[in-house]
## 1
Amino acid sequence: MRIFNNTLQRHLVTRGRGVNYRRSLSTLITKNGSDDGNNLIVIGSGIAGCATALTCAMRYSIPVTLLHAGDSLVDCNSYWAQGGIIYRNPSPGAGDSAEGLMKDVHRAGAGLCLNAAVEKVAREGPRRVEELLLGVAKVPFDRDERGELKFCLEASHSAARIIYQSDATGKAITSSITRATASHPLITPVPNTVVTDLLVDSQTCHGVRALNTKTNTTSTLSSSRGVVLASGGLANIYEHSTNPSGFNALGSSVALALRAGARCHELEYVQFHPTSLYMPGEARFLLTEALRGEGALLRDRHGTAFAKEFSPQGELAPRDVVARGVFEWSQKCEDEHNVFLDISHRDAEWLEGRFPTIQAHVRERGYDITRDPLPVIPAAHYTCGGVLTDLKGRTCVNRLYAAGEAARTGLHGGNRLASTSLLEGLVFGAAVADDVGSNDTDASPCYARSKEMTTSRQNYDDVATSKQMAFGAAVADDVGSNDTDASPCYARSKEMTTSRQNYDDVATSKQMAQSLLQKLRKIMWDKVGVVRTPSGLRSAVQSLQELREEACELYERRGPTLETSAIRDAAFAGEAVAKSAASNCVSAGAHYVVDDEEDEDDQAETQCSV
């Protein structure tokens, strides 16, 4: 096999056009330090945030302030999605239906999906795609010579129902939908803005405290309409991740929710993508599920295809199954890399046209998908759990919503089906907008009191089910209670010694934040990774609690900066994931626990305690 080299290049499209795009945070603030509040605040510019903003503005004429961390609206995780988005294949021979999609989602989710959420996405999804992507955004999906949409098959799907734009579907969707978002007169995108805390009083969210990362100044934004958490997941708190570098995917939505007293649920189900490009010294580059859907095979260093040895479905098994298979085979040889993805048996010209982004990336590293097997390894990819919501995107804090990867809607269960993420963001982003626009004030939005959200966990006994349903509240109580004295880092240690560090030095505090993040990522990868043990999870909980306390102290001493805000959020999220994993007694989906050599009674106590 070839020698690996060490260059990772990122390519961002130019930012969306629109008269409001370059509004700064300061222009939204009045002389008394707050805004007028007659708007909806959306945090995040991915597909969920844009779907919320566009639906609110177009359908209900509600003004929206869209805060995003990057300089460009397309600086979001949605941009990097390669494979595609689920639609509905109308061909009589395709065998596609809402019922068929529901079965596929439940099967991939290890029997832990919430049926109401699955049905909502399966039945509403095609209409939302038509309205927002084919209609408003006019996304240039691939079409055949007759102008009809092309469909492809991906792993664990029973029908070819995914529409795509070569191997850069996320880029095509976000470039189009952010352009529509930025050009709407009622939507004000505000770049370079990180939300540091939610403003909550009497269990109602009234706005946000935000940081301008260019000027390092903070401001308070109020909202009478509500706040939407749509800033993505937390896979980037792992040492190896398919997510891009930067503030995205560090768990900001989960951290904000926990500090505000909202519930998070099923955080242990962090999906590891089975096929990221393995290049020592580089960040992991995603090799889309569509490669295996189009016939790519997993081979060992001798060229032997091995996927059928860990699943009868082979390469098309659910992601969690394939990821563990790849992980296991990678451990079989210590001296050489042992897992490769090979699609060189397909027509070379067709491959060049179908996967141009991947081909360009690997060619810069000495590979060619038309000839060479590509070295692969699992990497953290997607957060299946998140901020607990109902089917309208409402959390248990009034006027606080969550959508997209930030939310736990119940759609994914223990493991996400390929190409459901963009569709979930679209459907639930629009659902949030519908709720905001309806001014529905009936009863409480709290998930815990919503009968429609009763889960049907097929693989859990009664004890495990009740524990999991209660865990969101336990994390909120333990990690981020509503204790509003003095500090936003509610559970910090008051005895920590600070004299050894110069928190006031900008360079030093930045270096400290980066060092803590590196340490956190290694703990998550080693102890809360693809395969977990009770003792490893217990160790992770202890280490991450101490790390969170240190991150909070750094934030308080230095104040909010991009770096101190990032590590504080990542530490809250990491500890919550580890605690959620340690509390779950049952291996299922992406949460896979094997026994270690500790005493059996000690194992049971560790696994079944929060």
## 2
Amino acid sequence: SSTPPGNDSVDTDPCKEKVCLISMPDTQLVRGLLYDTGTRRLSERLGDIDSGEKENDNEEDIKNGNKNFTLKHQVPVQSIENFNKKFEYISPEAAVDLEPVVDGEKLQKVNTVLRKWLSETIKSMVPRKKSEDSSESGFIYENFAIGDDHICITKDMIAETSLSFSRDGLPCGQGSVTLMDGSLLLGNFRRGKRIGRGGLGGERLENLGIKSIGGFYTSGVLDGHGKVEFLDGMVMEGLFMNGYLEGCVVGKCSNGDGDGKVFIGDYQRGVAVGPCWRRQEGGGWLHGVVDKEGQFTGEDMLYIYPDLVTCLVGNFRNGVMIEARESMVDMIINPGEEGDILHVRAAAPGPGVHIFSYQPSDDQAMSVDYQQQDPYERDRVECRRSAVQNAGEGVFAITDIPQDTFVCFYHGIYIEEGQNSPQSNWDYQIFLDWQAAPASPSLDILPDAWSYKDYKASLGHKVNHSWQPNCQYAKFYHPVFGHTALGIRTIRQVARGEELFTNYRYDLDACPEWFQKLYSNNED
């Protein structure tokens, strides 16, 4: 049976069906969350740390990864391996009383450590188990755990197989077995147990967003190095104990995109625990201490923008932002020892800070507050009259921007492939997937958002066209817009005050008249 050992109850919680969110359209997802948002306001102090320990700045405690320390100041570090010895620490009690002060030098040092840790972890973390006894035999595994609990298969459990059976009704030989519950087992069966290389697929895994689990089996038990392939293309390699994923792991998407999805976390008994990281498409990160089901659910979760400083902190459910406020990553909590998962904290938002929530568009309207600016975009660009004749408004850099940096976002109504926009003017219509176009959904801007004074929630549609662009469109998952947005990323360094341009790449057979004239003039 695929039911975890010792757990015969049937879980009817409808939220469990929403564990796999990766393939659900954004507009359906947000509607699914409306039935029971359970929202609570963000705690007054984001620095609260669950600890009653007294202040202790003993060097030996720091060396041993004492969990009751938080970062106050930082000094440059020479290596990630020993950076936990380089900090000055304060007690959690003192940390919660600190006034939020924007300290540029401190922010830069935190950012340097975080950026280096993420980069080196993604490149070189070796899967490892954290303790020998964390997957003790006899533990009741949850039905959302990543693992394989099919140990000995008998004839009465099988729906379909080409294998032969022993006299006592146990499958034997190399091949596959489909069980009554829909699970698909692969491997070399000896008296009902897999030996050597094998795997698992089927409905239970698909409900977790998983395509398959594979590895080596000893007497029917998955043990040692294994691989988990997710439905969204992510691949996670790690260690299995008693059939379940265990220890620190890194999961990566295999699409070759440097800004693709990544997961960094620690698993115990097949469930992610403690502080975890999940990079979204485009380079933003979800971060926080996951809930008992290994989900990014809680009141102090962070969405961190690609600069690894700007963030939105607040109430998230299964990675979806319910209610959050603008802040900055300003503290590293519990650096721990080599190989541990880094945990960061955000400064307490100031008074009167806007509330952000997940509000993707549909095919008729944009749901966001038109006057609420994106904090990441606001710190990099501004909208004013373009330097290009008759171009109207344009977007300009307000600071020097390096190459390969997302600077602003293009959000509009979401139009499915083959569907028509509710307006006839196609000046602002753009494909969401430029690689698949024209077989792609698209975005469009309705007239009530054409002017900057009327709509400030995103500025990407104000970036003008050029045959020598300094930016390009790229996929970006946004915490407010979801997948109903594109990111605009620099393709070279852009100086402060310089106007941003992209190549619109219109199809000449279906493009505005002004673009046809511009194309003809360029050809001349």
## 3
Amino acid sequence: MTFTRIASTRQLRKILGTKKSSGSQRGIASSLLRTGNSSHRRADTNAPSAKTHRITGHIAMDGIVGPMHTTTRQIFGLFNADMNPFTEALSQENSDEKNQIYINYSNMKPNHLKEGAVEMQSNYEVALKSFEEIINEDTTYEIFITELERITRPLTILQNNISLLSSVKRSADFDIALHEASDTINFKHEFSATIKDALVRFEKQFKAKNGEEKSLRAIQYLLRKHRLNGSMTGDKDGMQQAAAIQDRLAATQSKFLKRSSMTVEENGQVVSPQELVPMMYEIVTLQQHLAKLMGYESYADYSLDRHNAMAESPNEIEAVHDMFEQLGAVQKFSSDDFQSAYLDLLSKESDYNLKEYFEFGNVLSAMFDLCGALFGIRIEEQKNGVNGWHRDVRCFHVFNQGDKTIVPIASFYLDPYRRQHKDIGCFMTPLQYKNKGSIPVAAVSLDVRPPVWDDAQVEIEVENVVHMFHEFGHLFQHLLAEVELGAYSGAQVIEEDASETISQFMEYWLFDGDGLTKLSRHNQTGDNISNDVMDIIKQKRKAKKATELLHRLFIGQLELEMSTSFDPNGDESIIALQKRCAERFNPHHLPPRGNIDPLVQLFQNNAVGKCTMQYRYLWSEILSADLFAAFVDEGGHLKDDVQEIGSRLRSEWISVGSSARTADAFESFRGRSAQADALVSRYEL
């Protein structure tokens, strides 16, 4: 896939689609963002009442109004305190009475993780064996895929929760328990010849038919697992060899991640490059060996297949890098004049206490208003019986606008504050995928400084606001995917290099037009930020994005060459490779002699599963800028029919999950294939 300017779109249309542009849409400037009237408060843990009250423009649910529903037990936390919260919740889902499960995290102990994993793994293996015995040529796709999802669902939910808890509930006991539980999980169906043969049969059937893309993509997602572990070949020796390499690679990466993350406080000193570089060479050698064994030209090709990427070859990634270089991005943004102006903007912004304008509850309310207008949803907070993993955790339910039902279409937890035993940074993680009987559930973790007192206002920085909008973009892309089996067709399985599209799209609503201005309100005067200060903020944002562009070009090219042409036994060292890529794309910020931080960043990302994926932010940004361009007129003002366009974005892009190719979903929404012009113009190249 090659992104090009609008003046030369032939290659891009060939890769992303074939339709030509349907033309621009008319519109006049309009505004969406509206702030609430009061701040959100933390959920208390008192017994639920039957009343509801309104805060910041959203209904806070103290109880469910209307007929009692089967989710009541889970929503209000009426759990058995003596039971394992994981096995109890999942037993409710598998009971005759259809219940939406909400795990009782507040009763969770470290031993529950390992015990739950052992029980669920045993149940899974028994069910899988029974399933394999009845699969035959007459087994239909609907029966096969539904039963496979049912069998694997408990372990999948547990695995997702392990991922969450490893970041939000850190302690010696929990770390050990999480590690043991993770090691217990073994998805044996991914190596089953019976399952593989059935998948191959279904793939052939669907390829011979028209209109079966949704089913075909789910089957191909499952087949990819078999292809990448070598079980497609049926060569047991090859499978064992591949498994041995993967085990050694995982062990080396785990060691690298642990050693490279050590601090002076933990280790007495930072681990030296002399210790880390040999591990890098071992990892690259193992990656290249694995790729060749699996029949791929390079490890980059292996990774693109593994991540179901839009980019079909490493050459298409390099073409994006070359495009920005040829447009003069490096020359412009690495110049002394540009860098001096950027530093000057940083000093100007520091003259203002911007936190006084952004109260967490107000920002959250404004963001919910925007998402409600864009996606046609309303968000209600559950005030009692949250049963979260920490007392700060809040629970929200998502409904379609105008829907009077008390049954939500999705739910999510919000863990807003930084604290001890919680990882630094922001993220969204899915917990439960949608299926025919259950709604999707996810969690968002932010890095906001907590209030000194429970009733104190929570002031946040502009960067916190940006991170909130970014992570909630990920959240709603997951929650609003209207697919029958989210485990195989949800947003988490879309092409990896498109995974940052909606998250970056949400950021544009802050800085294009007066979005950020409207959600600002001084904590004493109630005034919005002045136009002069907002101009400084926007100029800084543009300069920062330009600097990030050069870093992404540098780090993306470094990873690309390391995964394709770099020879661990060749004349060029891995440190020389880092220097050469930096000189090409990031000449104003060359790593000092002996500094291998960019390489460490890459290998740490590789260790957590993001291999040959550094380019994904830039690739997604091309898509997100082009998506946002549908909402503005030629003068850069928001159109009048923003809500109508947002409704189409939800139905034609977000709701399809991974049941359609991202390129096809994009073309359905925009009426043409993707173009790089919108992003290029943002950088004023």
